[in-house]
Every structure is written in structure tokens, then in C-alpha cells.
Specification:
Layout lengths: L3 H25 L29 H11 L6
Length: about 70
């Protein structure tokens, strides 16, 4: 017979599985950024040689996320 601890572990496992499934769906519907040879932050757009680079520094990445993500923290 299952006790309270077993039921809590089952609930946690179910909660984790549902959360992972929701994140998988969200990730599948989120557009991916492509490297263009310049910083994707519209306020910067600095050119660089690294073809796989998206932003010139972490600050530009945060600023881009704040400008393009609805309800983002600023």
C-alpha cells in the first residue's frame, strides 16, 4: 500500500513530466535566431568575422531579448 511519501513522489514525477512536455512544445514553436555576420541587436549591428556568432557581447544579447520578448524584465 502506498503511503504519503510514495504519493508525493508520484505527484512530483507527474509534475516534472508535464513540465518537460510543456517546455518541449514551447521550444518547438519558438523561432530560432540565425547568424547573419553582424550583431542581431538592432541598436548595435556591429559586424564580425565569426559566422556562428549572434551577438557581439552578453549586454547586446540581453538588450535584444528585452526588446523582442513580450513581458520581459527590464
Amino acid at each position: 500500500m502506498a503511503d504519503v511519501i510514495d504519493m508525493a513522489q508520484d505527484f512530483d514525477a507527474l509534475n516534472l513530466a508535464q513540465g518537460l512536455a510543456a517546455q518541449k512544445i514551447k521550444a518547438a514553436h519558438t523561432p530560432r535566431l540565425r547568424a547573419e555576420g553582424y550583431c542581431l541587436n538592432a541598436d548595435c549591428e556591429e559586424s564580425f568575422n565569426n559566422s556562428a556568432q549572434l551577438f557581439c557581447n552578453p549586454a547586446c544579447e540581453r538588450e535584444h531579448a528585452a526588446l523582442t520578448t513580450p513581458y520581459a524584465r527590464r
